[in-house]
């Protein structure tokens, strides 16, 4: 800016001869002419442009200015982004002066993880939605990350799989102990094409990917790259929950505009701001390389949840992974108002139902399960109800099967579905919005009819929008009401719901 102002002033004020300069008085002009000899015939000075352009000093100045501008551009763009995403500096809450300690950390980007032991599994999307060129960019990104880590049997060990319709193992964790061997192995990865079976990839890394090298002292890290929604979202969310329960830290990188953000959130470890990354295209992968390397190096081992034991222990059921069995045969019906909560939130409900079902011991008692939804919600191809499921496998395979009903009739349908069944009858309602007076009146009437038919009605309240007095009014007993802050935290009710089911008699 100052250079431009100086140039403008120069062209406005400077003249070729004293005669042309109006700022010089006659006395000054006479003095100049009497003391300095000059030829006024040569009014215009000849500028040696060629000599200037080829002068080494001039070229050095150009190079220096270019470098200075590049540094200034980095200061204005890249460094603020790095400070926000990697160093977690927030100018709104911290202020400008407090950025100095954060800025001093910029030089601390590690070339390696300092010899810390870790097992890292790269999971690369190789589905048909990705071009071969973009798949190569995934591989290049993975290789560049591997170059950062300190590879060795007692340091960082890496593995790699690709997934499309099926999972293709490329490199077992710890198979090679040098970067040269690992990079050579990753050079020959084949592009697959096919569907985006993210659930199968998660299942593989949980059951096989880390099993051969499992150690309590080594963090297990999965880095998943994908550019689209999986072909089975419900199973993907379920497998993601199991993966994280097993102590695997999951980073997920969503690439492009076709990714399902809710699905990414379900896959990634919490907090999402640390473990979920979204970029616009495959060319942007290199821009997050250092950030991801730093975050991966900071991961500490996670203790897996205790294995499921065939026993009824209150603490394990409430706070762990313990299983339980109802005292008598039981019929359970879940009512999910998908028309108001949307498909994305309904998936979180389905994951919860799936998890509860997996912890019910069906070898002891006959258990049937029904799931009803309101209109515009999740539906399967056959549109029927889950009905009279008596074993674990068939129950898991049937959880996607639903029917459609209006909200006003969903409680009635639930009551009619299980009122004639033998044994204990249980109904669960998921509610996240206030009901109109008419809706509440009809729902309360159905709740009374259910109580008359000896059906235990539980209400799960979600969020802050609902009227808790209405929710409690729909229950048979006041302690049959449970609440959570959001659908993201719905999993926290898994133990309490299971505990209440198994305590009924």
Task: Provide structural commentary.
- This protein is 43% helix and 15% strand.
- By secondary structure, the chain is α/β, with parallel strands linked by helices.
- The chain has four domains: 1-42, no CATH class; 78-108, no CATH class; 118-298, von Willebrand factor, type A domain (Rossmann fold, 3-Layer(aba) Sandwich); 314-503, 3-Layer(aba) Sandwich (Rossmann fold).
- The strands form two sheets. The chain has a six-stranded mixed beta sheet with strand order 3-2-1-4-5-6, with helices on both faces.
- Helix 8 packs across helix 14, helix 11 (233-245) packs across helix 16 and helix 16 (338-358) packs across helix 21 (494-503).
- The longest helix has 21 residues, at 56-76.
- The termini are far apart.
- Mean pLDDT is 79; it is low at 307-311 and 375-405.
- Residues 119-292 form the VWFA domain.
- Keywords: Membrane, Transmembrane, Transmembrane helix.
- The chain crosses the membrane at residues 57-83.
- InterPro entries: ECM_Assembly_Org, MFS_trans_sf, VWF_A, vWFA_dom_sf.
- This is VWFA domain-containing protein.
CATH architecture of the largest domain: 3-Layer(aba) Sandwich
Please write the CATH class name of the largest domain: Alpha Beta
Which descriptor suits the 3D outline?
elongated
Major sheet size, sense and barrel closure: 6 strands, mixed
Report strand order across the widest sheet: 3-2-1-4-5-6
- Give the termini separation: 82 Å
């Amino acid at each position: 800016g100052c250079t431009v102002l100086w140039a403008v002033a120069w062209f406005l004020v400077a003249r070729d001869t004293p005669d042309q300069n109006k700022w010089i008085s006659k006395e000054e002009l006479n003095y100049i002419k009497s003391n300095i000899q000059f030829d006024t015939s040569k009014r215009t000075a000849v500028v040696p442009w060629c000599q200037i352009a080829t002068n080494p000093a001039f070229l050095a100045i150009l190079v220096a200015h270019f470098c200075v501008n590049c540094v200034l551009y980095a200061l204005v763009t890249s460094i603020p982004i790095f400070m926000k995403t990697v160093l977690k500096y927030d100018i709104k809450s911290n202020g400008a002066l407090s950025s100095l300690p954060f800025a001093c950390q910029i030089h601390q980007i590690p070339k390696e993880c300092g010899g810390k032991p870790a097992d890292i599994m790269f999971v690369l999307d190789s589905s048909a939605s990705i071009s071969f060129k973009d798949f190569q960019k995934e591989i290049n990104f993975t290789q560049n990350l591997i170059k950062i880590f300190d590879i060795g049997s007692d340091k960082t060990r890496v593995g790699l799989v690709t997934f499309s319709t099926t999972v293709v193992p490329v490199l077992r964790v710890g198979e090679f102990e040098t970067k040269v061997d690992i990079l050579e192995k990753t050079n020959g990865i084949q592009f697959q094409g096919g569907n985006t079976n993210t659930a199968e990839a998660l299942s593989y890394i949980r059951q096989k990917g880390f099993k051969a090298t499992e150690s309590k002292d080594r963090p297990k890290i999965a880095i998943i790259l994908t550019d689209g929604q999986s072909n089975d979202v419900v199973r993907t969310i379920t497998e993601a929950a199991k993966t994280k329960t097993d102590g695997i830290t999951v980073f997920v990188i969503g690439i492009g505009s076709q990714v399902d953000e809710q699905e990414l959130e379900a896959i990634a470890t919490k907090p999402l701001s640390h473990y979920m990354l979204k970029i616009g295209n495959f060319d942007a992968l290199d821009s997050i390389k250092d950030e991801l390397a730093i975050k991966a190096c900071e991961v500490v081992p996670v203790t897996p949840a205790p294995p499921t034991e065939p026993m009824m222990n209150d603490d394990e059921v409430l706070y762990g992974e313990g299983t339980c069995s109802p005292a008598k045969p039981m019929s359970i019906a879940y009512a999910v108002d998908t028309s108001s909560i949307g498909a994305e939130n309904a998936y979180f409900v389905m994951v919860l139902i799936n998890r509860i079902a997996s912890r019910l011991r069906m070898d002891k008692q006959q258990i049937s399960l029904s799931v009803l939804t309101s209109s515009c919600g999740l539906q399967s191809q056959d549109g029927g109800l889950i009905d009279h499921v008596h074993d674990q496998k068939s129950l898991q395979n049937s959880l996607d099967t639903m029917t459609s009903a209006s909200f006003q009739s969903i409680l009635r349908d639930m009551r009619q579905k299980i009122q004639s069944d033998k044994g204990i009858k249980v109904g669960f309602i998921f509610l996240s919005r206030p009901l109109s007076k008419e809706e509440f009146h009809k729902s309360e009437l159905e709740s009374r009819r259910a109580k008359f038919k000896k059906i235990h009605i539980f209400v799960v309240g979600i969020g802050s929008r609902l009227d808790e007095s209405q929710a409690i009014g729909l229950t048979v007993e006041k302690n049959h009401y449970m609440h959570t802050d959001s659908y993201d935290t719905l999993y926290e009710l898994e133990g309490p719901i299971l505990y209440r089911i198994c305590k009924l008699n």
